[in-house]
Amino acid sequence: MPEAAVADLLTRINRVADPANMTDLEKKHDPVITCPDVVKAGQHFDCTVHVGKHMAHPNEPAHHIEFVDLYLDDIYLCHLDLAARKSDPKVTFSIMLPMSGTLKAYESCNIHGVWISEKPMKVS
After folding, report:
1. Per-residue pLDDT tens for 50-60?
2. Which CATH number do you get for residue 45?
3. d(CA 28, CA 37)
4. What is the enclosing helix (H) or strand (E) of 28?
5. What is the domain count for the chain?
6. What is the DSSP letter of 1?
7. Which of 44, 43, 42, 22 is nearest to 32 (CA)?
8. Using an 8 Å Cβ cutoff, are 121 and 65 in contact?
9. How many Å apart are CA 65 and CA 90, to the nearest integer?
């Protein structure tokens, strides 16, 4: 990847442009959110964020996922720092939502910047 293109990745929050035609870069960096579409208010549920679900992401000192953050709209829910070692960058959070909204998962790659994915959530 040309240096200018890598520099562009570091100056913005990146997202998959076309989910039906993802590039290899997008496949490696899309933070896939897996959880129920509808949850009950005040009840905990598991929410998994998997970076590299579509295509494995390297996770070594030279190239790794630094952290995963989870928000409901603009409400901060949780954060996890990841170690740069041979492992699958996949985390499961136990969360509780106060209201419906959009879950937003952010992940940071030390080379390719911050990436986001979103999932609408309904709280009943």
Report:
1. 999 999 998 88
2. 2.60.40.730
3. 24
4. helix 24-29
5. 1
6. -
7. 22
8. no
9. 10
Separation between Cα atoms, residue 20 and residue 38, nearest integer Å: 25
User: Token pair of 97, please?
Assistant: 């939502």
The answer to whether residues 90 and 6 touch, using CB atoms and an 8 Å cutoff, is: no
Residue 37, sorted as left (phi over 0), alpha (psi -120 to 50) or beta, turns out to be alpha
Expressed in angstroms, the distance from the first to the final Cα of the chain is 45
Taking the C-alpha atoms of residue 21 and residue 46, their distance in angstroms, rounded to an integer, is 29
Domain boundaries, position 88: 3-123
pLDDT at 70 (0 to 100) = 98
pTM for the model:
0.91
Of the pLDDT bands very low, low, confident and very high (cuts 50, 70, 90), residue 3 is low
